[in-house]
């Protein structure tokens, strides 16, 4: 195609000649340059396509290697199991209603801890002495690799293939993670710390999963129990409460979410005024009732409700007056109510908690049935002592025949 010619002024006349902007040699040169550019663009597109295919293949290999690494780690973990089964942890975490004032009447819970429901009875798979640090490092590396692979593969693999591959991998990985978290929750203080860190390391991957979130809240409750510093306790309880609140907004029909929300509210209220503790008591009762309605065969919820009833039945004068001033209908419960809940725990899971049997004995003592109280104290003594619960050191009768438990 010929290039446009220069326009000549009108006064140039009919005899003027139009001359091209470029000579023939200039036009050829321009066409050669355009052809060169087009060839380079074509070659560049081919190289980009080859690079894209290579990266797709690389992303698939990374995901496969991570999956194989997780499976191998699980096999190694199983081989490290202790030759003898670990005794079941009887820790029950902190979830009392905390109506007892810091001054005035004495606390009625006798020091037992009441939270910490065990969701799995598996033995601990960790060798705490020689390989603890290396395993923690492997967990962190594995978690970071999974996150990186997920981010990269989203842009490199077809969308349908990505969802299928990642959904399967995430589901399998989360199952193994939750099993480990349950095992560590049932262990000693060090294992609880490991479980807490394990869940934190994987929060970015599983933060949208219900079963992960309530276990993360439970781990915060565990850290509250084993931490001595007051400010750290408050921080763990507050952070755990925020985690479980977010979960409840999406999964209001989860019994575990309601249960651990109640427990963490109770733990946080330990550091509040008596008015706040009474208010939290109503919240606690509401969520435990909801948990029981959603999962009526869970002994943990009945144990917590029994503790609530027992404490309310032993409210002191100051607590009762404060509750009456704040609410039209102060909380009411009897020792008989508490006893029925604790007996329900034994019906659902005999020997569920040493503290639960001690409370059954306390209820019978308060009701004047000393023979039944002594029977349940003997049954409680058959269960292993846990560091989070007060061991029964003596049971004896006074000269008047009244049984003393301390």
Automatic annotation (TrEMBL):
It is a single-pass membrane protein. Pfam families: RMD1-3. The gene is Rmdn3. The lineage of its organism: Eukaryota, Metazoa, Chordata, Craniata, Vertebrata. Residues 132-142 have a biased composition (Acidic residues). Residues 70-146 are annotated as: Disordered. Keywords: Coiled coil, Cytoplasm, Cytoskeleton, Membrane, Mitochondrion, Mitochondrion outer membrane, Nucleus, Transmembrane, Transmembrane helix. This is Regulator of microtubule dynamics protein 3. Belongs to the RMDN family. It comes from Casuarius casuarius (Southern cassowary). Residues 91-108 have a biased composition (Polar residues). InterPro entries: RMD1-3_a_helical_rpt, TPR-like_helical_dom_sf. One of its GO terms (molecular function) is microtubule binding. GO terms for cellular component: mitochondrial outer membrane; mitotic spindle pole; nucleus; spindle microtubule. It is found in: Cytoplasm, Cytoskeleton, Spindle pole; Mitochondrion outer membrane; Nucleus. Residues 34-61 form a coiled coil.
């Amino acid at each position: 195609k010929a290039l446009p010619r220069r326009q000549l002024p009108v006064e140039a006349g009919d005899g003027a000649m139009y001359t091209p902007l470029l000579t023939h040699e200039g036009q050829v040169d321009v066409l050669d340059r355009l052809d060169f550019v087009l060839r380079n663009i074509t070659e560049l597109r081919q190289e980009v396509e080859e690079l894209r295919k290579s990266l797709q293949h690389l992303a698939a290999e990374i995901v496969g290697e991570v999956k194989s690494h997780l499976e191998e780690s699980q096999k190694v973990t199983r081989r490290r199991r202790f030759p003898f089964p670990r005794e079941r942890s009887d820790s029950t975490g902190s979830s009392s209603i905390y109506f007892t004032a810091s001054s005035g009447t004495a606390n009625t819970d006798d020091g037992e801890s009441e939270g910490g429901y065990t969701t799995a009875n598996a033995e601990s798979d960790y060798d705490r002495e020689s390989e603890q640090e290396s395993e923690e490092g492997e967990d962190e590396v594995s978690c970071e690799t999974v996150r990186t692979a997920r981010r990269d593969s989203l842009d490199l693999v077809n969308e349908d293939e990505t969802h299928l591959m990642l959904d399967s991998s995430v589901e399998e990985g989360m199952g193994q993670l939750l099993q480990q978290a349950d095992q560590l929750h049932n262990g000693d203080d060090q294992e609880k710390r490991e479980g807490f860190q394990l869940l934190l390391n994987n929060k970015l991957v599983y933060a949208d999963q219900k079963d992960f979130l309530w276990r993360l809240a439970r781990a915060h409750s565990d850290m509250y129990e084993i931490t001595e510093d007051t400010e750290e306790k408050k921080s763990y309880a507050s952070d755990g409460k925020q985690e479980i609140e977010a979960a409840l907004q999406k999964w209001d029909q989860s019994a575990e979410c309601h249960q651990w929300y109640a427990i963490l509210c109770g733990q946080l209220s330990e550091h509040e005024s008596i008015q706040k503790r009474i208010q939290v008591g109503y919240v606690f009762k509401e969520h435990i009732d909801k948990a029981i309605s959603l999962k009526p065969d869970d002994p943990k919820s009945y144990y917590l409700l029994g503790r609530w009833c027992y404490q309310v039945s032993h409210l002191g004068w100051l607590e009762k007056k404060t509750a009456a001033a704040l609410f039209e209908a102060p909380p009411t419960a009897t020792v008989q109510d508490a006893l029925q809940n604790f007996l329900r725990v034994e019906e659902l899971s005999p020997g569920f908690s040493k503290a639960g049997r001690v409370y059954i004995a306390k209820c019978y003592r308060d009701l004047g049935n000393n023979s039944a109280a002594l029977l349940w104290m003997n049954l409680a003594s058959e269960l292993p002592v846990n560091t989070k619960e007060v061991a029964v050191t003596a049971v004896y009768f006074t000269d008047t025949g009244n049984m003393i438990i301390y």
